[in-house]
Write a structure and sequence with these properties.
The complex is a heterodimer. Helices cover 33% and strands 22% of the residues of chain A. Chain A contains eight helices and nine strands. In chain A, helix 2 crosses helix 3, helix 2 packs parallel to helix 4 and helix 6 crosses helix 7. Chain A starts with 6 loop residues before the first strand and ends in a 5-residue tail after the last helix. A six-stranded mixed beta sheet of chain A has the order 5-6-7-3-8-9, with helices on both faces. Chain A has a three-stranded antiparallel beta sheet with strand order 2-1-4, covered by helices on one side. Chain B is mainly alpha-helical. Chain B has one domain: MetI-like (MetI-like fold), CATH 1.10.3720.10. Chain B contains eleven helices and no strands. Chain B starts with a helix and ends in a 7-residue tail after the last helix. The chains are: A alpha/beta, B mainly alpha. The interface between A and B is medium-sized, with 27 and 23 residues.
Chain lengths: 267, 271
Amino acid sequence: MNPTPLVTLEDVRLTYPSGQTALENLTLTLHQGDFIAVVGASGSGKSTLLRLITQLLKPSSGRATFAHDALTVGMAFQNPTLLPWRTVLENVMLPLEVSPEHKFKLRSERAKYLEIAHDLLRSVGLEGVERRFPWELSGGMQQRASLCRALVHSPEVLLLDEPFGALDTFTREEMWMALDRLYLERKPTVVLVTHDLREAVLLADTVYVVGGKPGRIAYRQPIDYPRPRSLELSFLPEFSATVLELREKIRPGEVTGKREVIGEVKA
Amino acid sequence: MSLDTQTPSALLSSASPGKKRSSRWILPFLPWLTLAALLLIWQVSVRVLEVPVFILPAPSDIGASLVKWWSVLMDHGLYTLVNTLAGFGLAVAFGIFLRVLIGSSEWVYRALYPLLIGFNSIPKAALVPILVIWFGIGTVPAILSAFLISFFPIVVNMSTGLASVEPELMDVLRALRARPLEILTKVRLPRAMPYFFASLKVAITLAFVGAVVSELAASNKGVGYLMSSASSNLDVPLVFAGLTVLAVMGVLLYAALALLEWRFVRWAYRS
């Protein structure tokens, strides 16, 4: 949509003070409304990539350009990190209390902000538990609240670092659908870091495979299924073929023998 | 207080769901029944064994002495209470100040913390004679010994509390461009509150010990003074009456803090 990209990383290298290089030759462009997934083995530098986008880290060499200096971000992690002394609603309101874009308006426009928070909670199925405390909620519900906290200040980029990693299979699948709906409704720009290749292919428009040591982008796979996407999609043979192909890029040679069984490989 | 019985009764009820529900109502009264039984055994054995009252008075003798000296006991009790609370208040203020100072830099931490631990291993009751030399007999040494004995647990517990914030949450807050002061007031301080309240419960009990020890050694007022002078007059029931007043006051102070804790940091005791 927007011709100027939100984030551009050009030939970025990141070396930690310990001397260890986490990422190298990294080039990536993020446009308004993109939904990208970043997959790769543990320790391949996926989380480092997120910290570059949030500007918590500066590249050691190469260029990182942002649409403007104060790019707003929302973050959610595998651990919901909700504050136990705050109710669900108060937790979701936290970013509005501390981010410079909103904290000065919070008092005068409280009603408007409360409505935003309530709308978000409703859209992930959390209506009725706004006054509950996090420990009274199941893991999946806590993760939904954490998603709402990441979105409440309408950030320009939503960063998700293995957000569903700690959930059971059924809850995780529910969360996929909830995220797909949220994306359709609000069109945020999403960067999803995950181990789960099915999750990446089901949700993202582009999947980046990060691999090697130090990590670099080994492969880029566009995904063009229409939205809203459904769980049934993930049981189609061509979906499995895409997943398998990505898997090959991460751990080559492990499942080559089974290729014929699955069927034709998507180009 | 039903505060302390809350957790064990919750444990019990989850262990045997639905069973013996009819007799559960008795649980909050159980400590009182135990106390009554102990007093009864005490009363009966003193009477049966004909123990002289100047060695061990029966609960009824202590009760009579409580009634007889009620206004005197209240007078001295109030004095002890005021000294305890003054010392405790000083300890809380100084404890927080010292904690912030220690937290302000690695250098201050390295310079002060080992000394504090060394200081804490001095038996504080041994400082009372020195305090008396400096400040004379009376209120000041009582308050100071209450203060000295009780500030240390506050400093140490606050240290534990302020340290623990998840790194991911720090990333969230920094990415939102939250200011350090906001992170302190919205996350670090609330997170340290359970530790703080736990330390207050320890500190109030210690402050009470400090005030009474000082009164026993060098004072002309307070329950400690009353007990030592009753003891030299061989009025043993009055000694025990003083002890009873101290026990009740100690329990009430602890309960008041437990109530505050329940009110403010209930989230830390979730089931």
